[in-house]
Amino acid sequence: MTSLPTLFISHGGPDIVLADTPARHYLEGLSGLVEKPKAIVIVSAHFETDGVAVVTDPKPGMIYDFGGFAPELYKMIYPAVGEPALAERVFGMLDQAGLKPHTFEKRGYDHGTWTPLKLAFPDADIPVVQVSIDPSRDAAWHHAIGKALASLRHEGVLLIGSGHITHNLRAYFSRLRRGAEPDPALAGKVHAFTEWFADRLALGDTEALLHWKDKAPFPGENHPTDEHLMPIFFAYGAAGEGAKGRRVHDSVDHGFFANDSYLFD
Predict the structure, then answer these.
(1) Which of 14, 89, 130, 217 sits a CA distance of 20 to 30 A from 73?
(2) Sign of dihedral through CA atoms 132, 136, 141, 143?
(3) Looking at residue 246, what DSSP letter applies?
(4) Calpha distance 265→6 (Å, rounded)
C-alpha cells in the first residue's frame, strides 16, 4: 500500500445524511479519493477535552449530540469497531512528542465522526480511533498532534480532521429563523476567508496558516469560536513536511455557510 493522503472535511449538520446537497454527495464519493484504508484515525471538533485524548473503546456506541432534528437521525447507528491496539500506538506517539495525552476507555461516535463516515464508508468495515481537540489550544498545537501521527499514513491509516471551514452558527440560525436572504456583506467575508485558506494551503504556507487569526481576513466573522477550524491543522500537520492542500469540495449553504474540504499530500 502506498502512503495515504490526509483529509480535512467540513462535516455539516447532523441532517447532512438526509439532505440532498452538494456537500452530502461529495462525502458519499469521498472513498473514491483514497485507497481503502486499514484503519481511520479521526479528530472531530465535537470531541473536546483538556489536552489531547485518545479513545481506546473497542466498540464505540453512538452520541446524538444535537437536538431538534428529524427523529430518524436518533435511530441511526454507525457500527464500525474501535481498534485498541492502534489507539495505544497513537497514545504512545503523542506521548513521545511531549503532548501528554490521556485515554478514554469508553466514548461513542459524535456527529462530527459518524455522519461523514456513514456517508463516505457506509459499510462500516474500517476500524476507527477517535482523537480529541482542545479548544483552549491554538493552531500550532493541533498541527503538532498531526505531525506526531504522520507516519501512520505509511501503514495504510487514513488520518481525518472533521470540522468546518466556517462556523458562524449565530448568523446561520438567525437567517433560518427569519427566512432572510443571504447577507451579501457576510457572504463576501466568508468568500475572502475561504479563498485565503485555499491559497495558503495550496502554497503550504505554514507560517501564515498557524497565525490565521492575525493574517486571514475576517476570522471572527467566520469562527466566533475556534474549535471547528482546529481539525484542519491536524490534517495539515499529519500530511508531513512540505505538505500542500488541494481543495476538493467548496459548496456553500444559504449563501455563506461554506463546506470546503481538503486533501493533503
Answers:
(1) 130
(2) positive
(3) E
(4) 7
Type and span of the H or E element at 159: strand 157-163
229's grid cell = 477550524
Distance separating the N- and C-terminal Cα atoms of the chain: 15
Q: How far apart are CA 190 and CA 92, in angstroms?
A: 39
Identity of residue 163: G
Cα–Cα dist 154/7, whole Å? 15
What cell numbers appear for 38 in the block? 486499514
Specify the 3-state DSSP secondary structure of 264: strand
> pLDDT tens for residues 24-68?
999 999 999 999 999 999 999 999 999 999 999 999 999 999 999
Picking from 234, 210, 201, the residue whose alpha carbon sits closest to that of residue 8 is 234
Please, what are the domains in the chain?
Answer: 6-264 (3.40.830.10)
Instruction: Give me the amino acid identity at 210.
Output: L
Radius of gyration of the chain (CA): 17
Predicted structure pTM score: 0.95
Region of 156 on the Ramachandran plot (φ > 0 left; ψ -120 to 50 alpha; else beta): left
Contact indicator for 60, 102 with CB cutoff of 8 Å:
no
